[in-house]
Amino acid sequence: MDNNPEQPANQPAPEAVQPVSAPEQSVAEQPVAEQPAAEQPVAEATPVQEPAAAPVQEPAAAPLQEPAAAPVAAAGPAPVAEAAPSAEPVGTVGMVSSAEAAPVTEPAPESAPKQPMSPETKKKIILGCSIGGAVLILGIVAAIVIPMLLTVHYKETYTVAKELKPKIYEIDHNYDCSYVVEYVDSAYTSPKAYGDYVASCKKAYQDGVDELVAKLGNTEGIKKNNDLKLQYDKFKAKYASLSTGSSEEFSAKLALWEAVHNFNYAVDKLSTDSSDAQCKVAADYLIESGNDTLKAYGEGWLEHALELTAAYRAYQASSWQTSSEYYTIYTNKRNEFNNWRSTNAPTMSSIAPLDFDDTTEMYNEFTTLYNLIAKTYQDNYDYGSGVCFEFMGVVSCE
Length: 398
Known about the structure:
The protein has 398 residues and is an all-alpha fold. It has helices at residues 119-150, 155-173, 176-182, 191-206, 209-217, 220-224, 226-240, 247-268, 276-287, 292-317, 323-344, 348-351, 359-379; strands at residues 389-391, 394-396. Among the domains are: 155-244 and 356-375 and 382-398; 261-353. It is built from 13 helices and two strands, in the order αααααααααααααββ. The chain has a two-stranded antiparallel sheet with strand order 1-2.
């Protein structure tokens, strides 16, 4: 049987198949080992039909297909094995240009070695960091210190005002000071009762009130808060209008008022029958008071009083023949004495002024001040200080 199959009539007989040399290897293709040709004569291969022209495709990374086994002749020598086809069609073998091959990555050029930092640059960096750090620290300190300097602390202001409050109340509601002024000429108020009024009044005003008033004005809250300062000045003006002065001055004033009262009380008990000793006892209240005006008046009063009592005794000792003459002398001495007293009697409002009529206004001004201080401290309270009433975050300063 003929090894070559019949060819179609319309096609020429194929040329003898030459051994196919391996094409140039591309990157995607694997090398194919050539099989040595057999020494026997090569049988004619099956005619190869050329496939239709297809577009050139880039080499794919798909796995290689197993080559199809060539037909083996029945009685001839073994055929020469063809090379395994690539992923491309047979008609494109040898047509792929070298430009279509996968690009080869060139190695990156070696970078130049880093130059060491110059000392001047290092100094500039260190100096910049130091300045920046200093500015940052100053900013933090300023953010902490400045608010502290601007913060007004009202704790001391409130505590001093709270300590002063009952003392101001005592002054306003203590009527003994008014009795000192009102009963200075009273013959019905005993020296003991009047002394009690003086002691009570002294205690009310001398119980550290002057010191606390001054201390309150020196607190930070009064100095730095304009509203508190304005109200404090109003209160202090009313307090000063009471004319008490310092504690020593107030005590001295009360002592003079007490001396005058005792003198008036003693004089009221004298009569034309009183002895000179009794008159001297009365005058000594003024003479020994320590005030020059009262002393001068006491000495003048004693002189006129002794003359009057002497004239009355002479009148009493006169006979009926001379009684009219001595009575005239006595009457003249009495009138003279009364005229002298009305002319020279001291005025306590000028010697030791005391005025307790404005205590209500003073107390009202302090009450306004205290309420303002309490509200201000309540709004700027030091939580945990325990100065005011605290409960569940609510503060009440009364």
